[in-house]
Structures are given as structure tokens and as C-alpha cells.
Write a structure and sequence with these properties.
The protein is mostly beta strands and 85 residues long. It is built from no helices and six strands. It has a domain of 45 residues: Complement Module, domain 1 (Ribbon). The chain has a six-stranded antiparallel sheet, with no helix packed on it. Strand 4 and strand 5 form a beta hairpin. The radius of gyration is 13 Å and the shape is globular. 5% of the residues are buried.
């Protein structure tokens, strides 16, 4: 599996196609476990979110948590994009 240096991002509504991409940092993939972080700017402030997930075929499921956040974080899921021919 290739780890892309960017993450496609959609503007709300979240079901819309990605309109931009965001650079990922500290990306690691070992034994099916993926971790990386994303820093976004909003209203002049930086916000970093850390992602952790388990690769299962063409999907990745895991948790994401904002840096400094409390609680268990939120679930996230990604699916492999179909190749355009």
C-alpha cells in the first residue's frame, strides 16, 4: 500500500467530492496499522488532528482525535478510490 502525502478533503456537505487536499505528516504504516496527523488553518488558528487506523482490504477504519482534545475521539473510515481508466 502506498501512503499518499496528501488527504483529499471535502467542504460541507461531507458527501460532496473532494475539493482540495491537505498535507499529511508523520505518516506510518506497519503491520496494517496506519497513523498520521493533519494540521489545518481556520480563522488564523492551527488545529492538528491525529489519525489511527487498521487497514482491512480496500478500507481503513480507525479513530481521530484533535491534539489537546479530550475523550476517545471520533470514528473515521476511508475507502480506496477506484482507478480512473
Amino acid at each position: 500500500m502506498r501512503l499518499s502525502p496528501s488527504l483529499p478533503c471535502s467542504s460541507p456537505p461531507r458527501r460532496s467530492p473532494p475539493t482540495r487536499s491537505t498535507e499529511i505528516k508523520d505518516g506510518k504504516l506497519k503491520d496494517g496499522e496506519l497513523t498520521f496527523s493533519v494540521t489545518r488553518e481556520r480563522n488564523g488558528q492551527s488545529m492538528t488532528t491525529k489519525y489511527q487506523g487498521k487497514v482491512d482490504g480496500d478500507k481503513i477504519k480507525g479513530k481521530m482525535m484533535r491534539e489537546g482534545g479530550q475523550g476517545e475521539g471520533r470514528d473515521w473510515e476511508a475507502k480506496r478510490a477506484k482507478d480512473e481508466k
